[in-house]
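User: Sequence in, structure out. Go.
Assistant: Echoing your sequence, followed by the structure tokens.
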Amino acid sequence: MYLESLEMQGFKSFPDKIKLDFHKGLTAVVGPNGSGKSNIGDAVRWVLGEQSSKTLRGGKMEDVIFAGTTQRKPMGFAQVTLNIVNNRGLLQVSADRVSVTRKLYRSGESEYMINGSQVRLKDIYELFMDTGLGRDGYSIIGQGRVAEIVSAKSGERREIFEEAAGISKFRYKKAEAERRLAAAQENILRLNDIMGELESRVEPLRIQSEKAAKFLELSDRKKSLEIAAWVKQLDDLKARLEEISDKILINKGEYDAVEADISRLEAEAEDLQTKMESSSLKIEEMRAKILEAEKSNTQLHSDIAVFENDISHCLETISDIEKQQKSAENSGEENRRIIEEKLALVKKAEEDISDTEEKHKTASEELNRLSGEQDSFDSKFSDVNGALGKLYIRQSELKIAVTSGDSGKIELTEQLKKCREQEEQLRENGEQLSAEKRETEDGVRMLEEKSGEFSNRVNGLTKLWQGRSEKLSLTKKEFEDISFSIRDKEQRIKMLTDLENSMEGFAHSVKQVLKASRTGQLRGVYGSVAQLIRVEGKYSLAIETALGGALQNIVVDNEETAKRGIRLLQESKAGRATFLPVTSVKGNRLAERGLEECAGFVSLAVDIVGFDENLTGVFNSLLGRIAVAEDIDDATLIAKKYGYKFKIVTLDGQVINAGGSFTGGSAAKSSGVLTRKNDIEKLENERNKLSARVGEVKQNMEKLQAETDKLGFDIEGAKDELRVIGEDKIRFESEIKRIVSLLEQNESQIKAAVENAKRYAEKIKENDRNTSEAEENLRKCEEEIAELEKQAADSEEMRLEIKKKMEKLSEKLSEMKLYQLERSKDKDALEAEIKQLEEQFSALGDNSARLAVALEEQKKIISEKEKLIEERRSSLENAADAVSEINAKILEEQSAKREMEQKSNEGRVKIRSLTDDREKFSREMTRLEERQGSVQNNYDGIISDMQEQYGLYLSEARETAAPVEDLLTVQRELNEIKQKIRGLGNVNVAAIEEYKEVSERYSFMRGQLDDVETSKRELEQLIEELTDNMRRQFSESFNQINENFKEIFVELFGGGRAELTLTDPEDVLESGIEINVAPPGKVIKSLSLLSGGEQAFVAIAIYFAILKIKPAPFCILDEIEAALDDINVVKYAQYLRNFTDTTQFILVTHRRGSMDEADVMYGVTMQEKGISRVLKLDQTSVGIEAN
């Protein structure tokens, strides 16, 4: 086996498609640094499955695709193909030549192919495992990797040794077995949990099931007895209802007759009442007329009395007038005589009064003269004395005023000075307070501005916080809801997956065959039909119904596999199964013309399922001749149209079979394996969507929480600032009030001080003025006192003599005045009497004429009154006749009314009697109706109970009911059964079916657990066997490599010694590997003390030792001899010849010694920047071939 050729296109610096052909022996790839020669080794490593972009000397895998140059566009893909000659069959492919291809697109899509067929990366790994060509093998040694063999830690050197020992495949199988063992252990734990749960349920369910069975037995007996009793009771109740109905009819007839009599009598009574009310109304009207007449007569009598009284007064007036006429004639003469006498007396009184007035006047004049003199003297004396007293007082006051003015001036001057000083001090204080007030007001304004700003900030932040809080609450609720939904869906997925993994619902035989397929015991098995098809949820029920038991049919590749499967079931006695070989099952499709146009036709069943194309024949056989319809009605029409030639299935699982038979009914929910698969897929899709959503919601929730918390802190901070500002504002405002109060006090004090100063200045001026005036007045006062004291002494004697004369004249005047008054009164009285007499005399003439007129008027009035009296009397006579007539009519009406009242009373007595009868009938009918209602309720209740409890109508119950002779005996037995049912307590009727299901599932799970435990033991045994084989094979290989290393080291170094040792010989599979060397003439304690060339040569020796025990088919060595000197390069290159019989070498180098040993040389150049070219030089002949 060797590498025949390498094809590249678009890989790194090789954009164009090139092919490098290789032959056995040594092939050298040379070229300057940076020309791209190492890319050839990277290409081989990449196609063998390398996944590390770092190992491929790139940042990401996309870097292996040609990136373009200034002249060339980048490529869209990279493709490398290895063409290997497989003449010894080392590769497990049945072909002499094996082509391995890897292709990578810029979109990230990757393809792997073996001989043109797409495969998995895993298939590539397994193909080259233990050949030395794998990704961890030793067939490709890149730049610097040779040094890693020496410089790596002891535990990191194992890979190349394990690959050489051929245990990589064993390790891979062991890892796979351990993975499967872990899965088996997990399954055991899961199954044990399920078994534990089932075991905890089986025994209680068995007890409940037995109790439920007993309950059902008693319930059946109870049902039969209850139905029999109910039928008997219904018959009795029906008879009672008929009896009560007859009584109600009789009572109703009697009640209606009494009711008719009462209605007739009440109508008659009502008619009589109407007539009596009419009669009473007529009587009242006539009585009203009589009353009106009597009122009129009373008024007439009253008028007559008034008129007669008026006539009487007129007669009296006439008598008085006649008397006055006679008296007036006698009085005229007497009055004239008396008037003359009175006039004489008046004249005498006037003369006396005139004489007295003359005398009084003379005396008055004398008295006035004396009084004047007296007043003059008294006034003068009094004035002098008063003036002296006043002057004495005034003198004292003026002396005091002069003295106090001098002392007051001194005091006022001092006060004026203090006021002016106080005013000056107060003004200074006022200026200071004003300045403080302005500063404080500025501070308040500034605080108000800040308060407004922070209030707005708090309001804004609060609104934001409220908005964020509402969103956060909604987001939290959404997060909780989604999380709950995810947990719910995961639980359901786990439950359904457990059922799917345990293949619940499949027959044991099917499970046995599929298990044998998984373990490799039976090859060529594709799977069950249920596992191989894909179907949408809405079609699941239809497809499950169409396939039926065929869902568990097993699809295999050919008839031989089917026969092996049947033999397997026979040998293991695992039951029977149906096998569908792909090579022999070739069904055809239904091809009825016009089927697609039929109403309700959905599709052929085979067209609504998905499956691999190579299984088309199988599924055409199963579903190709089955149609799917919307519902049973549409299916019926289609079936009739085509003469029931083919099977039709509806979406809800109803079936019309070929030939015309119908199958259908209700379908169990989620009972099919297809439904389960679809449910799992649907739930996983929903869960994935919810998981993606929950991440977004959680991120949004955390963001909102952070924003809400920050806003809360900001709000609290702003509120704190606002509180501080408020406190400062209150303090400033209090300070302003204090300052304002002080300013007001200061201002009032200033005003008071100014006023005081003015007042004191005025007082000083006034004091000076008053003092000067007082001094002048004092001088004048003293002069006046001396003059008045002299005048008072001369006037006292003359005043006493005048006083005596005045007293005499005063007495005389009083007497004359009194006499004058008396005569004046006499005169006035006489004049009044004269005037009265003259008036009387004058009135006598006028009165006589007036009396004559009055006399005629009275006579006229008497004549008018007499006429009115006559008219009133005539009216009274007419009214008396009318009243008599009305009274007669009233008597007639009253007589008729009494007769009607008697009839009405007799009718009321009859109505009361009939009403009593009616009430008696009504009570009886009510009692009967209540009994009827009670019996009917009992009847209906039994019918309702029978329908509700047992779903039976009366006709059905009569058919099933046994005859009942003694209802009491049935009731006693029924009570005993009910007591037994109550004694059972709570009964779970579903426990019977549940116990059956749980028991079956328990048995199934026990079988599953046994299978898994068997599988676990088999895996543990396999792992143990693999471990033993690996330990044995690695030890043998390691010892051989160690011996080879010792020999090759001596050959290459020309002496010395070398050895490989295990750090832990007891655990060879995990032990590290130590390298101990000693070149000739040197003692080396650590490999790091060797030179770079020596370290490289040690690594090459180890590499050669590995190749010697297990040569790789081909090796690519990328400048591993770079650190060697020329002599050692030649040794290295010549030593490679020892392996060319078994190994093909491709040397990437620029050392002459290596080039000289090469059989073929390829030169790599980069004539165009960024693009590598390859030139082939065949050293056995002269010539260069360009690629």
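User: And one key feature?
Assistant: The chain has a mean pLDDT of 78.
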